[in-house]
Amino acid sequence: MSKVFNFSAGPAMMPSAVLEQAQKELLNWQGLDTSVMEVSHRGKAFMELITQAEQDFRQLYHIPENYKILFLQGGARGQFAAIPMNLIGEKGKALYLTSGHWSATAAKEARNFCEIDEINILQDKAELTVGELDFSAIADNYDYVHYCPNETISGVEIFDLPKVGDAVLVADMSSNILSRQVDISKFGLIYAGAQKNLGPAGITIVIVREDLIGKARKDTPSIWNYDIQAKNDSMINTPPTFAWYLCSLVFKHLLWLGGVKEIAKRNQEKAKLLYDYLDQSKFYCNKVAKENRSLMNVTFTTDNDELNAKFVLEATANGLQALKGHKVLGGMRASIYNAMPMEGVQALIEFMQKFEQENLK
């Protein structure tokens, strides 16, 4: 195989067209005979870049005008702490819906800053299934309700919105942002690390409704204070300018492809092709209920640790990189984010067929 496909869960592959443009502009951005990494983040050229990036992102994701978009640092883990610092108010506690490793990690971090109640919505039976999502009877008791719609480790995705009445719904969309359209107005806050669908590691996007800004607890560090960041264009310190620039190129690339509607169609087609193969196979299995199978992270196993290890080793030698499952779960995981072409999924299935034929007893 001459072409390499990167199935890493993050940092993940980026669109080749974006990387080629960045390569072309690396030493001479905007005709300035310098790199975007070397210009002032408060200079005219870079300020124009971030203004256009926000406009493009709003257009892509249909973000209403009463939402602020912050480009921050610290990854999703930073937001695990920033969210309770900014959103805990008169009710004094939050509700965390856990469905896997990352939602549980967010809940654990939040306990350092506020009182929380935690409800496990994942049913671990023969298949991983998301259970009841109607919390409208209790949600008003909390300042916000937090969940993670896509768990990268287990490959579980929640497609239906939790019912929370008039409560503030918060979502960690690090691994499925821009993969399909969502109604932003149903959320109080959405946050996402960039390193899966938005750009490189090092920058984090927060979409927050304006009425939720300005209520941070007094001891909130300024770098985590949404009000301070919003009033300073996300630049109270020097931002990761190169990562911001690459995100801006990704936004333009996705618009050129046809926007999130077209991306969602492609993601559905890629995931269906891979899951259809898994479903007919007697060698591999996926242990997630069909209604909760992730479009972004497809987990599978042979149920034999030695064969799994052999699969990963031979796949890597054949140009199919980073298919080893997370250490928490084992097995294999193919992350097929926006930038993964159909060609990559087809190449993976061809290898899986060959490996199955050679190792099926």
From TrEMBL:
Record-annotated residues binding pyridoxal 5'-phosphate?
76-77, 102, 152, 172, 195, 237-238
Q: Where in the cell is it found?
A: Cytoplasm
Q: What is its EC number?
A: 2.6.1.52
Q: Gene Ontology terms, cellular component aspect?
A: cytoplasm
Q: Which GO terms describe its biological process?
A: L-serine biosynthetic process; pyridoxine biosynthetic process
Matches recorded under CDD domains:
PSAT_like (cd00611)
Answer yes or no on keyword Hydrolase: no
Task: State its role.
Answer: Catalyzes the reversible conversion of 3-phosphohydroxypyruvate to phosphoserine and of 3-hydroxy-2-oxo-4-phosphonooxybutanoate to phosphohydroxythreonine.
**Which pathway?**
Amino-acid biosynthesis; L-serine biosynthesis; L-serine from 3-phospho-D-glycerate: step 2/3; Cofactor biosynthesis; pyridoxine 5'-phosphate biosynthesis; pyridoxine 5'-phosphate from D-erythrose 4-phosphate: step 3/5
Protein name as annotated: Phosphoserine aminotransferase
Q: List each copy of the Aminotransferase class V domain by range.
A: 4-348
Tell me which family the UniProt entry assigns to this protein.
Answer: Belongs to the class-V pyridoxal-phosphate-dependent aminotransferase family. SerC subfamily.
Cofactor annotation:
pyridoxal 5'-phosphate
In the record, which positions carry N6-(pyridoxal phosphate)lysine? 196
Q: Which InterPro entries match?
A: Aminotrans_V_dom, Aminotrans_V_PyrdxlP_BS, Pser_aminoTfrase, PyrdxlP-dep_Trfase, PyrdxlP-dep_Trfase_major, PyrdxlP-dep_Trfase_small
